[in-house]
């Protein structure tokens, strides 16, 4: 552009573009240079000629004579973004097309002070990005957290894992403390005065080392809610035993007080009708520990509030496994559902369906069974049904009996001594009917005690292994072993002793 161009309104200059015939040289094909040569479009170009455009400065503005200067004033004064002053820039349509075909430019790294800020040609955008990465490579730092401090924490989708009935049962015992009141004490022995009451002492050890039960039974007689229907009742005897077994903070445990409380318990429970070993004829005969435990729990409450030692809804929330039977026809799929039933102990038959299975296979049979072909379907009138015990809600304390009694073809009873490995954790979620409650971990329990038996059907000895604040302790009547490791609790067989009654407590672990 000539320096003496005619002045235009508002200090703008008119630029004329003319075509000139000129052969393209090899050097000219490499880049479009800034030059003042113009060419006339009226001349006939030769076959190997190509028009070249004159580069203008960034502050120059181009518009056609036919355009209204006022209408184009805004768009021609817009400054290009990130444009380097040494790089050609075109404001007309043809020049912009040529601009896109030019070799891109990148700035020299600022670390080189001699040529910092200058532009160098780069063959492609990919090459340009590669050069940038080579100048400043990425540094990978091993992660020490699942989420970095600058990264927004991912919100977990909250899924309800409780029903209204479960919420109601949890609410009834939400005031009970699940921790031991004396973390400095361990288990203590209970004297067997008759020599045959080992089944009672083992059951008491299981209950006295369940903190939530101890804290619950200590409330007996403290308010109208826990009123005592009769002085010297079964709940009174258990409360007095719990108070001396786990005395108040700062008080010393007395062996004499514990012994008096045990005698008072035997006296109170023997007065109840149909108590195992309570009559004179059975007083010196050994009884089944499972039967005695169920009898004890059932007599702690009653459907009649005036006769109940403890609230029935709280007892069922603590020990009651609530389920309802559902019968399904194998032919048409018709289902019949019965009323819910509350079980205090889950019975696991170690011979059903057959010998030699693992604990999970036997435990499943408590919830699933094939009925004999005598029931007729109400819909298709065919025989053949399966029955499933659908869990409505699990208790806070789950007791599992390993049934070790079997009958042969002649009706003779014998003891099953097969070692069966039981788990430390037990999950009931798969036995629920509600889909949202079938997620693993929603109904998880942890083993806290094992009642074991050695001997035969008619005689033998019961002992208990419990988890106390001191650790795993093995207790045989008044003798208490030193605390051991968790593996002591999980032994499927120890000498002549085999596990008979397992106690699990609900956990969130």
UniProtKB/TrEMBL annotation:
Gene3D superfamilies in UniProt: Cysteine proteinases
Bias (Basic and acidic residues) ranges: 161-171
Protein's name in the database: ubiquitinyl hydrolase 1
GO BP annotations, alphabetical order: protein deubiquitination; proteolysis
Keywords: Hydrolase, Protease, Thiol protease, Ubl conjugation pathway
EC number in record: 3.4.19.12
Residue stretches spanning the membrane: none
Record's signal peptide: none
CDD domains: Peptidase_C19
Taxonomy, superkingdom: Eukaryota
Organism this protein belongs to: Diplodia seriata
Residues annotated as domain USP: 188-507
Family: Belongs to the peptidase C19 family.
Record field: catalytic activity: Thiol-dependent hydrolysis of ester, thioester, amide, peptide and isopeptide bonds formed by the C-terminal Gly of ubiquitin (a 76-residue protein attached to proteins as an intracellular targeting signal)
UniProt-listed PANTHER family: UBIQUITIN CARBOXYL-TERMINAL HYDROLASE, UBIQUITIN CARBOXYL-TERMINAL HYDROLASE 36
GO MF annotation terms: cysteine-type deubiquitinase activity
Record-level GO cellular component terms: cytosol; nucleus
Region (Disordered): 62-87, 150-178
